[in-house]
Amino acid sequence: MKAELTAIALTTVVAVNSAYAGGSQEVVLMSEVEWEQLNPSRGDKSPQAGTLWGDRKGTVPTGFLAKFVDGFSSPPHIHNITYRAVVISGGIHNDDPDAAEMWMPAGSFWTQPKGEVHITAAKGSTNVTLVEIDKGPYLVLPTEEAFDSGERPINVGASNIVWVDPPGIPASANGPKVAYLWGDLKHGQSNGTFVKLPTGFTGKIHSHGSTFRGVVIKGQPQYLGTDVKNLEPGSYFGSKGETVHQISSKAGKESIIYVRTDGKYEVIPAM
């Protein structure tokens, strides 16, 4: 049975005050995602997959959305590579075939080690997850090919995420929050975090890494570029090189964004 773990806080970063737009940027709206079968061998029973960045059939780091119908339950299987995932909508159960059901709601995070036998199930009118791999291809393989990679799975339920004030910003019950999920915030090291933007937030996310990936998990923040883009859950924005992303969170809705980067970043409210 997977352990229910608690996320811990971000390490220190130094806030900056800059209008610098920086390197190349891209935005993919949820409505623009192109869907295909995740596991074609299952035909119409296959979940759907939509790529946000990379290529899950290739060998590059990749992020894609997986969409499941209500009542979906996979047969026991393994993967050739380890993946990380975040529930965006609906409920997901991912565990050993003999484990008791533990449904993870939106905002939950889990990891699935390569080689470990497991099942994935979904319940809800709309069930969407973000799946992230460091290197492909992403394959679904039979249980006969199971192996022990030495890694152990992690489930972090949404209610167990620990939110803290971003370093460099005065503590505030109504300010932006961050939560650490995996990796190392040192320069050049890959890491994954959540960023929570309160209702009415306007400001910047300043990335210092060579790559930045942000996926909306909750709310409908606005991306303020040459035009305003409304980012519904499942939408993605990213950049290469040092970049400032201008973001606001609509009145009446807080926003949660999953961030993957290979360095430090700051959340900077407008003055």
Helix content: under 10%
Give me the secondary-structure category. mainly beta
CA radius of gyration: 18 Å
Low-confidence stretches: 1-20
Which superfamily, in CATH terms, is the homologous superfamily of the largest domain? Jelly Rolls
Q: Oligomeric state of the chains?
A: single chain
Question: Which shape, going by the Cα principal axes?
Answer: globular
Query: H/E series, N to C?
Result: EEEEEEEEEEEEEEEEEEEEE
CATH architecture assignment of the largest domain: Sandwich
Please give the largest β-sheet: 8 strands, mixed
CATH topology heading of the largest domain = Jelly Rolls
In total, the number of strands is 21
User: Number of DSSP helices?
Assistant: 0
What is the domain tally?
2
Strand content: 35-45%
N→C terminal distance: 47 Å
* Name of the CATH class of the largest domain: Mainly Beta
Strand order of the largest sheet: 1-11-8-7-9-5-4-3
Mean pLDDT: 89
Overview of this structure, please?
- The N and C termini lie far apart (47 Å).
- 0% of the residues lie in helices and 44% in strands.
- The strands form four sheets. An eight-stranded mixed β-sheet has the order 1-11-8-7-9-5-4-3, with no helix packed on it. It has a six-stranded antiparallel β-sheet with strand order 2-18-15-20-13-12, with no helix packed on it.
- The protein has no helices and 21 strands.
- The relative contact order is 0.23.
- It folds into two domains: 3-27 and 160-269, Sandwich (Jelly Rolls), CATH 2.60.120; 32-159, Sandwich (Jelly Rolls).
- It is mainly β and 271 residues long.
- A hairpin with a 7-residue loop joins β12 (177-183) and β13.
